[in-house]
């Protein structure tokens, strides 16, 4: 599992890329990805293209990011979800909180 | 400088023994010497030296045999044995190691190499000692933790099983430590005899998950016993969890209200895998799909408490499961999944065997027992076959007020959110003679309130509920109209009068609607195959008298009681 983050050229958007399993083991790395940056981006993208699995603690981590990014005003897009990941997000009805693409 | 060790030297040549002994004691160690394997064993037992220098070839018992036995005696502790040998061919040296030797030293002895080897072996010995100490510490801590969990589970079971999981129509299966996987199962009767069920799964494991379960269980049982509706229980439980759980922790849950009298189930599902409404007559199963965010995510303002309502038939069953069932994975990392579960459901012939079949399928798939599954199934049975909910506790009989009347009117916006039935019931249960009739009273209040609200205030026609589709439309419309409600009222008029040896309650419920023809409603409701409209018939059965005052406004019911002297 590896998590990398990349701010856009204008610093307005931060893309967090998650490879492999997204579960409790990723807790610290995921937080670091959005806390240890200098700018304060307006929008966040979580790229799940390389994510093979996502568990309920990962859902919790996404909520933590949402809180960090402004709660109800947060702009977060979850991108490139494979069908398994999409299913887990759907069961928890996370499309009500995140843009899922 | 290395530590002072006690070192046993087994060497049959007196000269060599003397030489080694001198070298080793000059290095600061305590030296014990023997001349053969047998003596080495005896002295080892007595003195427990920390390291052994062992000549390979000795009379009486050679070094190989002595090494084997010393290793046995030493048990888990590492007592390094360095063979002293003039043997040089590979095979002989291999024999030294096979007998349990840790290293060897060729004769003639080199003082520097001997010292280095003793130090190296001492490092290994210490490492082993540390590993053993830590292992024992972990084992002790683990035993302690398991003890604590057992105690915590016993406390929790008292709270969680306060309800009616033991009712004859409820079957459930929970892995013994499901609680510490964050799973939670609660069930309780409302005063009306409706059953509230909650299957929940907290994110995370262990103590945090178990702790969140306690306030949830308290709120669920407290409110259900007082007659609060499922919606109110939901809102309260969600608000409570939102308040106490740290951000990022929440509880996936499905809640049910099963009315055995009205033959409906209300469902709120947020985050758990599909449950199923299993039809007793061979019709296709209805999946109960998660429509909401889990509990503890939304604040009270944006929480969605919309319920889905399904008609029930005798013999139907409602099955709920935790994600542990679907997420059981085999050696290849493949998940058990929904499809395999559906196959088990389709193949099931005997209700009683379903849980066993699900478990068996999981074991076949995984090769081992799964330790984090929760399953619950509630059968639809005659309400009379279920035990009566307990009689609520109340104050003393002597001081109870016995001659009073009161009117409560709930208007507009209040009706949108608030269910007045528990409040009115609570007041009536102050009357000792009514306490024994709490169940009937609650049902009657609930039915009359539902009638007044749905038909009177919201103008819904129960004829809509003629088929399954209309049934769903009805409840959708109810939610929509209620959300937009501004005008209108429901009024409860209570009159308690003393009578010789007892007393009587007269209760009139009316509303702002256009009124209705009670006789005609009763006639319609006589058709038993209908999905709806058992309400008024129920009220008639449960109350002593039930009348429609002239003008068709409201319904009046009476309950009386006699107090034993």
From TrEMBL, chain A:
SUPFAM superfamilies assigned to the protein according to its UniProt record, in alphabetical order: SpoIIaa-like
Origin: domain of life: Bacteria
Pfam families: STAS_2
Residue span, STAS domain: 14-101
Family matches, as InterPro entries: MlaB-like_STAS, STAS_dom, STAS_dom_sf
Protein name (record): Anti-anti-sigma factor
Organism: Pseudomonas cuatrocienegasensis
Lineage: Bacteria, Pseudomonadati, Pseudomonadota, Gammaproteobacteria, Pseudomonadales
TrEMBL record, chain B:
4-aspartylphosphate found at: 55
Gene3D superfamilies, alphabetized: 3.40.50.2300, Histidine kinase-like ATPase, C-terminal domain, PPM-type phosphatase domain
Entry keyword annotation includes Hydrolase: yes
SMART domains associated with the record: PP2C_SIG (SM00331), REC (SM00448)
Domain (Response regulatory): residue spans on this chain: 6-122
Annotated source species: Pseudomonas cuatrocienegasensis
UniProt keyword list: Hydrolase, Phosphoprotein
Pfam assignment, any one: Response_reg
Descriptive protein name: Histidine kinase-like ATPase domain-containing protein
InterPro entries: Bact_Sigma-Reg, CheY-like_superfamily, HATPase_C_sf, HATPase_dom, PPM-type-like_dom_sf, PPM-type_phosphatase-like_dom, Sig_transdc_resp-reg_receiver
């Amino acid at each position: 599992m590896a998590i990398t983050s990349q701010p856009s050229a204008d610093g307005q958007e931060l893309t967090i890329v998650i490879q492999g399993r997204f579960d409790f083991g990723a807790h610290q790395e995921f937080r670091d990805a959005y806390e240890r940056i200098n700018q304060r981006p307006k929008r966040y993208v979580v790229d799940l293209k390389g994510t093979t699995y996502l568990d309920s603690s990962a859902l919790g981590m996404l909520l933590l990011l949402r809180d960090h990014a402004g709660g109800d005003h947060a702009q977060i897009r979850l991108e490139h979800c494979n069908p398994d990941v999409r299913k887990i997000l759907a069961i928890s009805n996370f499309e009500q909180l995140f843009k899922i693409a | 400088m290395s530590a002072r060790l006690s070192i046993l030297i087994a060497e049959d040549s007196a000269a060599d023994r003397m030489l080694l002994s001198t070298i080793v004691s000059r290095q600061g160690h305590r030296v014990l010497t023997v001349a053969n394997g047998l003596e080495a064993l005896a002295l080892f037992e007595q003195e427990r030296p920390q390291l052994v220098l062992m000549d390979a070839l000795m009379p009486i018992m050679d070094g190989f045999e002595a090494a084997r036995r010393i290793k046995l005696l030493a048990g888990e502790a590492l007592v390094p044995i360095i063979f002293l040998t003039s043997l040089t061919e590979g095979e002989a040296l291999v024999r030294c190691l096979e007998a349990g030797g840790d290293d060897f030293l060729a004769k003639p002895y080199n003082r520097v190499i001997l010292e280095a080897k003793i130090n190296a072996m001492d490092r290994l010995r210490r490492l082993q000692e540390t590993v053993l100490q830590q292992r024992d510490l972990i084992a002790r801590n683990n035993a302690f933790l398991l003890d604590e969990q057992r105690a915590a589970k016993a406390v929790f079971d008292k709270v969680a099983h306060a309800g009616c999981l033991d009712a004859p129509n409820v079957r459930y299966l929970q892995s013994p430590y499901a609680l510490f996987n964050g799973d939670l199962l609660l069930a309780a009767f409302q005063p009306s005899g409706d059953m509230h069920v909650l299957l929940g799964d907290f994110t995370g494991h262990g103590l945090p998950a178990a702790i969140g379960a306690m306030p949830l269980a308290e709120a669920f049982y407290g409110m259900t016993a007082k007659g609060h509706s499922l919606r109110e229980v939901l809102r309260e439980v969600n608000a409570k969890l939102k308040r106490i759980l740290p951000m990022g922790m929440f509880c996936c849950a499905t809640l049910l209200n099963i009315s055995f009298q009205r033959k409906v189930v209300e469902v709120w599902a947020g985050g758990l895998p599909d449950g199923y409404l299993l039809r007793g007559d061979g019709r296709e199963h209805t999946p109960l799909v998660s429509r909401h965010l889990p509990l503890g995510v939304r604040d009270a303002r944006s929480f969605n408490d919309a319920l889905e309502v399904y008609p029930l038939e005798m013999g139907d069953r409602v099955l709920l499961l935790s994600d542990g069932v679907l997420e059981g994975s085999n050696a290849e990392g493949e998940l058990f999944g929904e499809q395999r579960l559906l196959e088990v459901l389709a193949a099931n012939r005997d209700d009683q065997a379903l849980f066993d079949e699900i478990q068996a399928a999981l074991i076949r798939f995984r090769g081992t027992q799964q330790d984090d599954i929760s399953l619950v199934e509630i059968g639809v049975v005659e309400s009379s076959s279920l035990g009566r909910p307990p009689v609520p506790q109340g104050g003393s009989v002597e001081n109870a007020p016995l001659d009073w009347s009161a009117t409560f009117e709930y208007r507009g916006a209040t009706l949108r959110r608030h269910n007045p039935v528990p409040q009115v019931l609570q007041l009536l249960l102050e009357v000792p003679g009514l306490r024994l009739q709490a169940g009937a009273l609650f049902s009657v209040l609930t039915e009359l309130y539902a009638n007044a609200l749905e038909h009177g205030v919201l103008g819904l026609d129960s004829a809509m509920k003629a088929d399954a589709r209309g049934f769903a439309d009805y409840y959708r419309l109810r939610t929509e109209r209620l959300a937009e409600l501004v005008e209108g009222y429901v009024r409860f008029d209570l009159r308690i009068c003393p009578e010789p040896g007892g007393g009587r309650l007269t209760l009139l419920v009316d509303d702002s609607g256009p009124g209705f023809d009670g006789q005609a409603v009763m006639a319609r409701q006589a058709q038993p195959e209908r999905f709806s409209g058992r309400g008024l018939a129920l009220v008639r059965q449960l109350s002593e008298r039930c009348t429609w005052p002239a003008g068709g406004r409201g319904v009046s019911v009476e309950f009386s009681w006699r107090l034993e002297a």
